[in-house]
Amino acid sequence: MTSTPSPQTPPTRRTPPTRRARPAPPAPPFPEAARAAVADETLRANLRHATGTIRDKRARAVAELADWDRLRAAGKAVKDHTLRHLDRYLLQLEEAVTAAGGTVHWAADAAEANRLVTDLVLATGEREVVKVKSMATQEIGLDEALEAAGVAAYETDLAELIVQLGHDRPSHILVPAIHRNRGEIRDIFRAEMARWGRPAPADLGDSPAELAEAARLHLREKFLRAKVAVSGANFMVAETGTLVVLESEGNGRMCLTLPETLISVVGIEKVIPTWRDLEIFLQLLPRSSTAERMNPYTTMWTGTTDGDGPSAFHLVLLDNGRTDTLADAVGRQALRCIRCSACLNVCPVYERAGGHAYGSVYPGPIGAVLTPQLRGTDTAVDASLPYASTLCGACYDVCPVAIDIPEVLVHLRERIAQGGPVTRGGLRVRIRPARGHAAERAALRAARHLLDHPGVLRAGERLLARARRLGFRPQHLPGPARAWTTTRALPEPPAEPFRDWWIRERGTTDR
User: Between 405-418 and 364-375, two packed helices, what is the crossing angle to 10 degrees?
Assistant: First the structure.
């Protein structure tokens, strides 16, 4: 995307259509959304092909490094150390960015971040911005906030462009349009590109080369015209005030170097202490995300430099629930996430349900633990996310910074089911037990009663063994537990209770 425009296609300024004619409806709980998603055969086929391909490539790339486990442990250690001393490193970062000519702004929540960025854009007199792919800006709904202020925000990542032109939502961390196949993308380009800028060729096909060329020509005029760019960052180096963006297409490089004003919105957890620490993550992230040994485009900038790059740089440090998450001794490990998406590509639930079922910009296993902590569990969709998992542990096995996602999922399930004190906006508040988990709490109380009364348990075991000898083979559990067995086969009852076997084999007294 670095070539210059031809004389026949000068940059033109167009007013894009409204992204959404009306507010998006509230997202349904995960079970409801997933039920609809798994019925879509095209979606399942797209996901199965894409995640399988990425998963296999990643496994081969990781296997090339004999010290991968040591790199993984080093990344975890750096992140844990930084989170323990986050206040100190954020202040060091602010000092370094300011000394290099940048301006640092602090945003406690999404509303404050959107207000800051909107005011900064409007102060330039511009009414359009180009954007580098950024999950933080998606998290706060920045595009919609800018649109409400009369500012058009153009996504320049190819997958994000597909999502924007299709009036869609991202469904994957690395590949936001993973739910679309090539034919669908071709149709979107043909129908929508002309309304946003340069139209797609009339004879556009669905080959990757043709689609990429159409996107390149469409975006070229925006890159050369834009005076303001908005980005996120993969990492922020406190030692020097340097921000780092890793991307694969070159669109980020164009956004980060050509405009006169650059505004970066970055979560406070993205800071790392030193340049030496960055070396670790520049090895972990490419192999875990795109299965590449080295990232194709790694752009770094420190403040401003006369005659080179943007003349004004603003860094908006975003909290938006991160400090509250940091207060949770178990849940805080989710803040180690470097957004590689490896956990999505191995997750059997994500592969079948897709990213939209999670009702969040952060889908998959990491979204199931991060979203409820950033947004709380007051809504049905957020309270359902910790249950969007089989707890198989594949996500933990592939995480490059060793986030124990199953541990956090169980921790959040307990918090939702039991209720209790949590931190919200710096205050300790008590959440009520979720209404939808009354049956679960009743089952746990019944299990506790059963285990506290060995005689009752022993009688039940022997009754089940005798029923088996009479040919009784239950296929479903009774009552509310039936929902668990509609898609699962019950194991056959044992020929004899374990206690009886123990007494017979070991000769000990049953107690």
Answer: 40
- Exposed / middle / buried, residue 23 (Cβ in 10 Å: 0-12, 13-18, 19+): exposed
Query: Which residue(s) pair with 229 in the sheet?
Result: 130, 262
Q: What is the chain's alpha carbon radius of gyration, rounded to the nearest angstrom?
A: 26
- The helix (run of H) or strand (run of E) holding residue 301 is strand 297-302
- What DSSP state is assigned to residue 304? -
Q: Model confidence over 86-101: pLDDT tens digits?
A: 999 999 999 999 999 9
Place of tokens 């897709």: 354
What pLDDT was estimated at residue 462? 80
Provide φ and ψ at 53, rounded to 5°: -65, -50
Question: Percentage of residues in the chain with pLDDT exceeding 90?
Answer: 69
β-pairing verdict for 128-131 and 271-272:
unpaired
Residue 110 burial class via C-beta count within 10 angstroms: exposed 0-12, middle 13-18, buried 19 and up? buried
Q: Is 236 helix (H, G, I), strand (E, B) or coil?
A: strand
Task: Please state, as a whole number, how many other Cβ atoms lie within 10 Å of the Cβ of residue 486.
Answer: 9
The torsion defined by the Cα of 304, 306, 312 and 315, in degrees rounded to 10, comes to 0
Buried (b) or exposed (e) across 380-419, using 16+ Cβ within 10 A?
A: bbbbbbbbbbeeeebbbebbbbbbbbbbbbebbbebbbeb
Is this structure's pTM higher than 0.85? no
Report the alpha-carbon distance of residue 167 to residue 177 in Å, rounded.
Answer: 12
How many Cα atoms sit within 13 Å of 192 on the Cβ side?
19
For residue 29, the SS3 value is coil
Q: Which amino acid is at 50?
A: A
Strands of 348-479, DSSP E: 420-424, 427-431
Instruction: Provide the CA 266 distance to its chain's centre, in angstroms.
Output: 14
- Kindly report the three-state secondary structure assignment for every residue of 390-410: CCCCHHHHHCCCCCCHHHHHH
> How far apart are the C-alpha atoms of 405 and 19, rounded to whole Å?
34
Q: How confident is the model at residue 478 (pLDDT cuts 50, 70, 90)?
A: confident
Residue ranges with strand state E in 141-276: 152-155, 228-231, 235-237, 242-247, 261-267, 271-272
Alpha-helix residue ranges (DSSP H) falling in 27-153: 30-38, 41-63, 68-84, 86-99, 110-123, 135-140, 142-148
